[in-house]
Backbone:
């Protein structure tokens, strides 16, 4: 569904907002692949961590954040009642103590670190077929800048909007084509991982229609390269 949203934004030239969604799809794709790799026992452990343990651990943070909202509301019965859905996720101290007792702080920190993007990439890249995953930090980093709206993110937009029309349009065309390629590549990676998991053939995982589309999009990448060569000084 997020991939479909990305294509809608490409069609409406909302390319920078799109980078945040692409970051999300990339992270979800790598987590999916991570869950499909390893022995049966290793996969069972990872599935349990992902579906059962991590959500329980996150309840503590979610509870504290909800408490900060609810407990700081004015002492107004109507407002408190309107926000009772937030109160519903606030855990009792007994429940928090129960979770912390079952999953000590050291274990929680280690598990959250294990499931971080960088650690998943590092683990997957140990296998020869996934070694190129190390190259996925750049795009992920761009999405992170935009999510956090830091100075780098603002400078990306300033640079883009300050370009002369010819250069800006060439960049937008290539940018949109790259985002379409990203969506298709991540879809292919998930299909590839699924087929390997079920011992199915991984031959011809690319659709012929996508191969044709990629060929068609090459012209926009070449056009962008030609235009940039006129402006860049090496």
Residues:
């Amino acid at each position: 569904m997020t991939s479909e949203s990305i294509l809608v934004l490409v069609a409406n030239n909302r390319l920078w907002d799109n980078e945040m969604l692409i970051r999300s799809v990339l992270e979800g794709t790598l987590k999916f692949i991570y869950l499909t790799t390893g022995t049966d026992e290793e996969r069972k452990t990872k599935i349990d961590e992902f579906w059962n343990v991590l959500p329980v651990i996150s309840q503590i943070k979610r509870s504290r954040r909800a408490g900060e909202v609810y407990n700081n509301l004015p002492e107004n019965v109507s407002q408190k009642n309107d926000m009772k859905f937030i109160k519903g996720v606030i855990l009792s101290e007994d429940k928090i103590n129960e979770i912390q007792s079952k999953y000590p702080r050291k274990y929680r920190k280690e598990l959250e670190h294990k499931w971080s993007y960088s650690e998943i990439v590092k683990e997957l890249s140990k296998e020869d077929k996934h070694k190129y995953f190390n190259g996925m930090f750049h795009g992920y980093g761009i999405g992170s800048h935009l999510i956090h709206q830091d100075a780098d993110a603002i400078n990306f937009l300033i640079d883009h909007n300050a370009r002369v029309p010819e250069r800006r349009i060439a960049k937008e065309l290539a940018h949109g084509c790259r985002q379409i390629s990203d969506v298709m590549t991540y879809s292919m990676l998930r299909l590839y991982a699924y087929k390997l998991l079920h011992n199915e053939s991984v031959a011809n995982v690319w659709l012929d229609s996508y191969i044709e589309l990629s060929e068609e999009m090459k012209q926009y990448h070449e056009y962008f390269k030609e235009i940039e060569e006129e402006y860049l000084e090496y």
